[in-house]
Amino acid sequence: MFTRQHLDHLVLDVELVLISVVQGVALTTLAIEAAPMLRAHHVGPWIAVATGVLFILSFWSVALIHAISFVAWPMDLIHYFFYFGLALLECLTFTCVDRPHDWFGYSIACFVLAWGLYAYDAHLIAKRKPHYDVSPAYRALYTHIVRRQRLEMLGFMPAGLVAHIAAWHVVARRPDAATTLLAIQFVLMLAFVVSFVRSFTRRQALIGACV
Q: Is the Cβ–Cβ distance between 50 and 190 less than 8 Å?
């Protein structure tokens, strides 16, 4: 017979496998598309490839943080569908390593869909609230989950979306500005990854306090 704990572990296993598989596909696409571009020794594609790696790391780290924080039975298929959609958009973005305007265009689509995932996950987090109302440690964990979700959903995603829309418009009118804008994108994504790593460290401590 299934137990609740067994079902929770099953959902978490599916989540972790799916995260790793879709991001593995994205990384493979980036490597295949990057190889001929990097041999040309142009600065732009090198920056784009480095940014692509940060895209993958940011998606994977956020998904992992969510997985260990609130993913549990019952399984939510729509949540997983977002992962497939984002992986597809990542792959399409990575095919444009040498076309900055298209690169920023697909990056915009990535941020739009990621924003949708954040909004959907906020709904899932709210539904899980009763499971955390059992002790001060669990309530502290839930507070951190909610605050971080709001910060990323209402701060990081809109800021990233606006920045990429602006870059897309500028590159359309001034192609010579592409390298500078790619460098700015790299810094932005690096800041995201650093923030996610810090959040992960704090989240692990809070989860450990619940054990």
A: no
pTM of the model: 0.92
Residue 149 · residue 192 · CB < 8 Å: no
Domains of the chain, by residue range, sit at: 4-209
Coil, strand or helix: which one is 194?
Answer: helix
Give the model confidence (pLDDT) of 18-57 as tens digits: 999 999 999 999 999 988 877 777 888 899 999 999 999 9
Quickly list H helices, the chain.
4-38, 43-69, 77-94, 100-127, 129-132, 136-151, 157-173, 178-209
126 within 8 A of 150, measured Cβ to Cβ: no
End-to-end CA distance of the chain: 25
Collect all residues with Cβ–Cβ distance below 8 Å to 47 and sequence separation of at least 6.
Answer: 179, 182, 183, 185, 186
Q: Residue 117: which of 8, 22, 183, 207 has the closest Cα?
A: 22
